[in-house]
Fold LacI family transcriptional regulator.
Amino acid sequence: MAHRFSLKEIARQAGLSVATVDRVLHERPGVRRGTVGQVTRAIAELDSQQTQLELSGRSFVIDLVVDAPARFSGALRSALEAELPLLRPAAFRARFHLRERWGAVECARQLDAVARRGSHGVLLKAVDSPEIADAVERLAARGIPVVTVVTDLPSTARIAYVGPENRAAGSTAAYLMCSWLGERPGDIALTASHDSFRGEEEREMGFRATMRALAPGRRVHELPDSDGIDATAECHLEDLYARHAAISGIYSIGGGNSGLARAIERNGIHGTVLLGHDLNQENSLLLARGSMQAVLGHNLRTDMHGACRALMHHHGALPGAWEPERSPIDIHTPYNMPASSAR
């Protein structure tokens, strides 16, 4: 009977004496079949609990590095802080590096600073650029794993990606847009925070492909990058209205939705369909007052849990290899928002 535990451990787990366990393990005569079963079950139970026993006392220091508007980086931080206590008996401590409009060079410098200081892993949301890719390679060379969050860097040495299937999210937005507009005339405006975020690029690709399939006659106008800033998004939409008033729908990939809603209201465009991403406080309020028709979201806490689990597998704290599943895409309307979302 193969095992990796001491006689005392098995005896304690089985509720038997050490001598009895010794007789069972050495297959000596005079042992009842039920007693053999007790010892077998005890060893199986110890095996199943060994992972938790090994995690006891393990501690991990990780870094969350995010290039995003404060409303989103704050939501990621809150999600990670909520999940860390649930990872016990392992102990996690997080350091946070969150900034809006973070240039690729400066973000790469922050990643290099993490590499010099040392870390058990980096959770990263950043643009897909040569500078960031090189910094991820330097982290990997120092044995520091990187998990990308919400937007991927698939050509780098990152160990995993957590987040939604972004192309499917864009296709879902196009389906909703066409369903809401029906036969109503008008074109579509599309706005992103930055075209270097691969996740936003994939959402746009999914949206455009599905719009071509479902509504080939509708033109899609792409607004300049807004960095997800309300005032910038508002200004870009105002400029489009000045040039092309027949806009019946807006797909907001990267945020700035309060600014978009103000531009819609100022121009008196009633019935404009506004779709966006992430059920944060701002979008919840816009949904509640009817300024947005739907918000596509996913569970950030699930993403953060999956990212930490990927790091534990990488360091051998959990057995075997593991790849997080893509986060399911949720569709939120004014009628199915969680009660806590508008707080």
User: Anything to note?
Assistant: The mean pLDDT is 91.
